[in-house]
Amino acid sequence: MIGRAKDLYTQFDERYPTHARIFRFLLSGGTAFSTDIVLLYLFTDIFGVWYLASAIIAFIFAFFVSFILHKFWTFGDRSRDAMHMQMGIYFLVAIVNLALNTLFVYVFVEWVGLHYIIAQVVASLLIAVESFFVYQRFIFKNTI
Question: What's the DSSP call for residue 114?
């Protein structure tokens, strides 16, 4: 079963490389998001850590999960030469995206009147589209 799924994915990747990259991007981002949410819950509700400290810790772990998955799997960048520089730029993009996300959610809730969960989903989708192009064009550009 797993071998068949791997074969299907390999065929998909060879036939539709751009779509496969987008799929990997979404799966990597979803994994990082899940890491963030699960760790936030664990640190806050299970270990009793203050929720803001938990959010920071979870963000840091999710950042590394996201960077590693995007670098090595999504964009297939195997080089280690400029990895520290890439990680620094990636972190700056993550901070800018965090600020943009906050702004978008505020605008969608306060000005547009969306429910905060829907506002977060819309903001996340916008940030995901922007991030894909920034990562592809500027951070992992040697893999295109």
Answer: -
Q: Where do the domains of the chain lie?
A: 1-74, 78-144
**45, 82 contact by CB (below 8 A):** no
CA 76 – CA 74 distance, rounded (Å): 6
CA distance 108 to 105: 5
- E strand or H helix at 59: helix 51-68
Do 44 and 51 touch, CB atoms closer than 8 A? yes
Per-residue pLDDT reduced to its tens digit, 89-98: 999 999 999 9
The whole-angstrom distance between residue 107's C-alpha and the CA centroid of its chain comes to 22
Tokens encoding 45? 């509700």
Looking at residues 39-68, what average pLDDT do you find? 92
* Whether 101 contacts 83, CB under 8 Å: no
